[in-house]
Specification:
11 strands, four-stranded antiparallel sheet, 225 residues, 40% helix, alpha/beta, 8 helices, 22% strand, five-stranded parallel sheet
């Protein structure tokens, strides 16, 4: 799951982003409204965390601009503005939640998970493909009833394949889904991650497999397809 974090305090942005990444999220962090609007229009995000006190554009204007282009993306306003009037304005503008600074990272994580569990959200569902079960809430994977020990990147890749079973995913599509723009992958990172995940699926007798279309991309489908 990929998040856009809009925060002009670089130290807070760095610390919070690290916490979010440690909990399995891919995070793109920007520090002004213009970059936020550009990023939201260029990439698909599962949620956006937005500070209101930005140096160039008022935060509510950023929210409305992004919502006009992508009304389905959920927002969490994260700001020092704690007046009731500000909360009402933020929620009425289209934000799905509102958290006041200073905040605990654990609370922000809980609020993100709550937003993503809502109907149409990316979290709170159990994915099942063949004999693979993926609990997206606790990020656990079982293959044939046996826990699968996957790295964070392997879990993210497997989730992407399971959500799009049978669809061909290009290398660029996988990169955009698994890596933030401030953590670019190495030249062969996708190939290595796919190879390792494929081997683990084979070793655990998964009933589905990752297939390669040379020069085009990868797809997950029934083993032997």
């Amino acid at each position: 799951m990929r998040l856009l974090y809009v925060e002009d305090n670089e130290r807070l942005a760095q610390n919070t982003s690290a916490s979010l990444r440690a909990n399995g999220f891919i995070v793109d962090c920007v520090h002004c409204g213009e970059d936020a609007v550009h990023s939201a229009r260029s990439y698909d995000y599962d949620a956006i965390i937005l500070d209101l006190g930005l140096p160039d554009i008022e935060g509510l204007s950023v929210l409305k601009s992004i919502k006009a282009a992508k009304p389905e993306v959920p927002f969490i306003i994260c700001t020092a503005r704690d007046a009731l009037e500000d909360r009402i304005k933020g929620l009425d503008a289209g934000s799905d939640d509102y958290i006041v600074k200073p905040f605990d990272a654990a609370e922000l994580l809980a609020r993100i998970r709550a937003v993503l569990r809502r109907p149409g959200g990316a979290l709170g569902v159990t994915l099942m493909t063949g004999n693979i079960t993926f609990d997206t809430s606790c990020r656990s994977v079982e293959i044939g009833g046996t826990p699968a020990h996957l790295s964070r990147r392997e879990r993210d890749l497997l989730e992407l394949f399971m959500r799009r079973k049978g669809r061909i995913l290009s290398r660029d599509t996988i990169e955009n889904a698994l890596y933030g723009f401030d953590e670019p992958p190495t030249p062969n990172a996708i190939e290595v991650a796919t190879h390792r995940l494929r081997k683990k699926l084979v070793d655990m007798d998964a009933s589905v497999a990752i297939h390669t279309l040379r020069g085009i991309g990868y797809f997950l489908d029934d083993d032997g397809a």
